[in-house]
Amino acid sequence: MNTSARLQAVPASPIRKLAPDAEKAKALGVKVYHLNIGDPDIHTPLEMLSVLRNWDQNPIPYELSQGSHELLNAFEYYYRGLGYSFITTHHIQVTSGGSEAISLALFATCEPGDEVVVFEPFYANYNNYAVTTGVKLVAVTTVIENGFHLPDINAIESKITAKTKAILICNPNNPTGVVYTQTEMDMLVKLAKKYHLFILSDEVYREYVYDEAKHISLFSYMEDIPSQAIVLDSVSKRYSLCGARVGMLVSLNSDLMAGVLRIAQGRLSCGYIDQKLTAKLIDIPENYISDVQKEYDKRRIVLYEGLKQISGLVVHKPEGAFYIIVKLPVNDSEAFCSWLLTDFRDNNETVMLAPAGGFYVTAGNGINEVRIAYVLNSNSLNRSIQILKKALEVYGHK
Ligand SMILES: Cc1ncc(COP(=O)(O)O)c(C=O)c1O
Q1: Residues near 124 by Cβ (< 8 Å), separated by ≥ 6?
Q2: Residue from 267, 226, 346, 239 nearest 107 by CA
Q3: Mean pLDDT over the full length of the chain
Q4: How many Cβ atoms sit within 10 Å of the Cβ of residue 153?
Q5: Average pLDDT of 157-181?
Q6: What is the CB < 6 Å shell around ligand 1?
Q7: What number does the ligand 1 atom closest to the CA of 246 have?
Q8: How far is the CA of 196 from the centre of ligand 1 (A)?
Q9: Over 80: is that where the pLDDT of 397 sits?
Q10: Which of 190, 207, 232, 331 is the most buried (most CB within 10 A)?
Q11: Which letter does DSSP use for residue 137 in this model?
């Protein structure tokens, strides 16, 4: 029986595709440092966990399709705290993680075959959502040499065609760590206005910016372009709640929100328990997020300074999120990442990295790059750097 051509076209995630090799290594007793995936080791706030500890409701029902009143109110409170008091519960759709929010936004803004401009390297799962929604991603390439900041307006404008419906950004950026400046954001909004495009802004790492970088949210333009701006958000990284699967799509465009709700009705609701514990975000002490931000900043410095000591690597200090793209002295980073899991051991330990080719759409780009997530504590990061250094020495002599 043949499955659909579009099913065949769905790419495997570069973040997870080497997982069977990692599982085999672990079954043999090898310790694998997971730097391939943004699944933090930082604790979920106790205020949220207490919901699970004290659970006595039986049975577990569906929730409302838009999201529970309690959670929508909590998100309204969160956005008001950021200064966006024009966002009310009507402008928020609760989703199954930011992942569903991105898919919904592509479906809601594009016809099959329409184009969305993205900046590569980009969060690899955008490729997945684009295939499943029938959207074509058109990439503007950004480069490590200028910290993956945007090229000039002409380079972006040259990619806009009659089929372009939206510009999709991730800010602060996974996988590059770039945080777009006010000038860059102004430029994107100017293009959206000139060509009547939607702007989809994935801001799941909003709180994680470092040094002088300042996060300029699409929210700050939303009242100026109310029908065009869509923010894609998630609690996964903000509260170490990856497994709760709660995200949000936020827009002032009432037609779009009504349509998105109709899709949400088709999948009934997001997790009832997940929403209950996420709603406790209103009880979390104010310093929780700033403490987590400081911890990631510490890890960022450990990783960046450590990587700089390894000869042959090209790195740029990330300005936000918790990832870094590294250019390696190898021809094929996927083969290298696979070899790390299947062949290389240092004291029976190894590291798992994400080959960066899958974070690009332009064939050949990123084939000697990897993405590293600094989601492990500083000791584990230092040990991982040591392992990577030794591995590159051995690999170079093969
Ligand atoms: C940039 C970006 N957007 C969206 C997501 C989706 O996260 P979730 O579905 O857990 O909210 C991730 C997860 O890693 C991400 O890095």
Answers
A1: 11, 13, 14, 15, 175, 354, 358, 359
A2: 267
A3: 96
A4: 14
A5: 98
A6: 38, 97-99, 123, 170, 174, 202, 204, 234, 236, 242, 247
A7: 11
A8: 27
A9: no
A10: 232
A11: E
